[in-house]
Design a protein that fits this description.
The structure holds two protein chains of two kinds.
Chain A (H helix, E strand, L loop, with lengths): L1 H6 L16 E10 L12 H16 L8 E4 L5 H9 L5 H4 L6 E4 L5 E5 L5 E8 L3 H16 L6 E2 L3 E2 L11 E8 L1 H5 L3 H10 L2 E7 L6 E9 L7 H29 L1 H17 L5 H17 L6 H11 L2 H5 L8 H15 L8 H7 L15
Chain B lengths: L12 E7 L2 E7 L1 H6 L10 H6 L24 H7 L7 H4 L1 H11 L14 H22 L3 H16 L2
Helix pairs in contact in B: 6-7
The chains are: A alpha+beta, B mainly alpha.
Bound molecules: zinc ion (2 copies).
The site of one zinc ion has 8 residues of chain B, from helix 1.
Chain lengths: 376, 162
């Protein structure tokens, strides 16, 4: 089946080669579009949704960008296959709940995916490694321009692109970056940063976990508003804020190395030990330990190639990814066992953290030592 | 602006959400927002927080109670349920309520980004017509009937152009 071609391959954007990839895992831009004169998917009847899909799908499949694409109708996908696509950020959770009348088309490199009949008739997204919002926008914008030659999109001269939810009206664009911020979390500065970013109309939320919890220290920063600014202005604003977050995160990491190195070494060392030798690990523990391993890679504790392995483990240890290799439905404890096994296997050759190497390279602090800060 | 909870500190966290099709806003100071765990406005159920505050302030509703979209049959009651509209024509049907909703949700009230190429001419014409109508109203108001006549002619001319 066509989906095998996708499931067996790692996503392109996981290559870890984009700019600022040690802090920004990936950049994503999605555009929402709708056809004129037809109800939005949530209000359309099933037969209407099928008609809309039949009208849109050939144009999407015919895009030059989709020459080697995989096109999948939602009703042909199992719950597990959908969940794998969600874990790879190729479809949304909402789309995974769709059946007849919805579809997804994605390229082999898995950096371009187009959902048909999600909340809007079209949700097109481009995803890139590292901080590449402009490149991601350029790619999805090109697809949009090609499609609008063939399809009549709902557009109003005042309100711009009309979407099912008023919060997307205007550009219909959501640009986001997935950022890894262990330094800010460990130094307890993360709430300040989140609030400062919220204040200027951008949203920050934890990628994994409920509510305020951010497992794996992974956060998503995105624009909250879509009307009143051009696409370029929104992306520029977001880019500037993310560059500032990167700077704060780098400072936090440096401060940890300079003033709380024993705490930091303890975290990194314990994570290494548990990841290499544990026989059962739940998803929450894995995310948090992998975050510390990733931080270790960034700080130079492990040779460069290990950062890609760790990034891949973030995805490969998600529940559906674990399940997809097995014939039978795994119970929770079996899943935890398998998760630990996959991690041990992948990190088997990973050398012990090069502690002395890293510490010898830490520049002396320009700040007075914070003797008051507790080594908690 | 003062914090809605303690009413003493100045607010620095501003939240806006649509709950049951109503716009709700709440402004919090730093300590109250931390106390209530508001670190993520997008995942935060504002309704829960507002319930603890007594009267929810600034509650707007979509105009046209009982009104139905002529294109898709969508009603305001549906919007209250889902926070989503029925079709693109709903924006015109419920324009009054939507306009205020949008202006409190977004940075601006009119689109300045991309325009679909094939619709560019039409959009430009629409914008020009809107501008002429504004000028016409002003001319009539100031009893400048000569200008008004010229403007009316230009509007007619523009309208018949394909
Ligand atoms: Zn307060
Ligand atoms: Zn409608």
């Amino acid at each position: 089946m066509a989906i095998r071609k996708i499931l067996g391959k790692t996503s392109d954007w996981l290559g870890g080669d984009g700019p600022h990839h040690n802090i920004v895992v990936s950049s994503r831009v999605r555009l929402a579009r709708n056809l004129k004169g037809t109800p939005f998917p949530g209000w359309a009847k099933k037969a209407e949704r099928v008609t809309i899909l039949e009208r849109i799908r050939p144009h999407v499949e015919g895009l030059p960008e989709m020459a080697e694409a995989v096109s999948l109708a939602c009703q042909d996908l199992s719950a597990l296959e959908k969940q794998v696509l969600v874990e790879r950020h190729l479809i949304s959770r909402e789309h995974a709940a769709k059946g007849l009348g919805s579809a997804v088309v994605m390229n082999r490199r898995q950096n371009l995916s187009i959902m048909v009949n999600e909340e809007d008739h079209l949700r097109m997204q481009s995803i890139r490694s590292g901080l590449q919002l402009k490149a991601a926008f350029k790619s999805v914008n090109k697809v949009d321009t090609e499609l609008e030659q063939q399809l009549d999109f709902a557009f109003d001269s005042t309100l711009g692109y009309l979407t099912a939810c008023p919060s997307n009206v205007g550009t219909g664009m959501r640009a986001s970056a997935m950022v890894h911020l262990p330094g800010l979390v460990l130094s307890e500065q993360i709430n300040q940063v989140v609030q400062a970013v919220n204040k200027i109309g951008l949203a920050v939320r934890g990628l994994y976990g409920e509510g305020t919890e951010a497992l794996g220290n992974l956060f998503q920063v995105s624009n909250q508003t879509t009307l009143g600014e051009t696409e370029e202005q929104i992306i520029d604003r977001l880019q500037k804020v993310i560059l500032q977050i990167i700077e704060h995160e780098q400072n936090a990491r440096m401060t940890l190395l300079q003033h709380r190195s024993s705490t930091l070494l303890d975290h990194v060392g314990r994570a290494y030990g548990i990841l290499r030798y544990a026989y059962s690990m739940n998803s929450k523990e894995a995310l948090n330990l992998l975050s510390l391993a990733k931080l270790g890679c960034d700080l130079g504790f492990y040779p460069e190639p290990w950062s890609v392995a760790v990034d891949e483990l973030f995805i490969e240890t998600q529940p559906a990814h674990l399940q997809k290799g097995s014939q039978q439905k795994l119970a929770a404890d079996e899943r935890d066992g398998l998760r630990a096994e996959i991690i041990r296997g992948k990190l088997e050759e990973c050398p012990t953290p090069a502690i002395l190497d890293v510490l010898s390279k830490v520049p002396p602090s320009t700040l007075p030592p914070k003797s008051a800060s507790p080594e908690a | 602006m003062l914090c809605d909870v303690c009413k003493s500190e100045s607010a620095c966290v501003f939240l806006t959400q649509i709950v049951d099709g109503k716009m709700q806003k709440v402004n919090l100071c730093e300590s109250c927002s931390r106390e209530r765990g508001v670190t993520d406005p997008t995942a935060f159920a504002l309704a829960d927080l507002l319930q603890g505050l007594g009267a929810a302030q600034d509650v707007e509703q979509l105009a046209g109670r009982g009104q139905k979209c002529g294109t898709c049959g969508f009603t305001q009651a549906e919007f209250k349920k889902t926070g989503r509209l029925g079709c693109s024509a709903c924006y015109a049907t419920f324009t009054e309520g939507i306009t205020s909703l949008l202006s409190s949700m977004h940075k601006g009230s009119s689109h300045s980004g991309k325009v679909p190429e094939r619709q560019a001419r039409f959009v430009e014409k629409e914008k020009a017509l809107k501008e002429l109508h504004v000028q016409l109203r002003q001319a009539v108001k100031s009893e400048n009937y000569e200008d008004a006549a010229t403007l009316r002619d230009r509007i007619r001319q523009l309208e018949v152009e394909a």
